[in-house]
Amino acid sequence: MALKKLLFILLAILNFIFSFAQNSINNADFWNNVRFGGGIGLGFSNNSFNGSISPSAIYQFNDQIALGTSLNFNYAKFNDDKFLAYGGSVLSLFNPIPQLQLSTEFEQLRINRTLYTQTINIEDNYWLPAFFVGLGYSTRNVTLGLRYDLLYNDSKSIYGNALMPFVRVYF
Length: 171
Known about the structure:
Keywords: Signal. The chain is α+β, with helices and mostly antiparallel strands.
């Protein structure tokens, strides 16, 4: 059921964005406002690794507002425990001034995890929603900031905690 909701949200946003393309006098105007980019993440510590990639596209309505979608892939290994997450997200970006970016992002991930304990091994597969609010410093195509997951669940999340740094790059 959650997959249907995610697909509906993604299709609704794409429909909204593409409706602007049909209303423009020149279709090239639409593609001039689409920016591609995303994020990449790597994390290392004692006996652990975390890697992620999230390509995305946004439609830049004006200098202040952008909406878009993203695909997400994340792999983490902590000792013998493994996490694989994949899914998508929809995001909105708002720059009240050029250097300040406020963001919201709804992310829906399919989690496949394997946990090894001394007594039993657990294999778990489930959908995990996340709703991030963020604040970042922007300079040209790059934004550095922090985001907070309002739906953070300590027992289910693949993220270490609800507050996370981010780097966004769009061209």
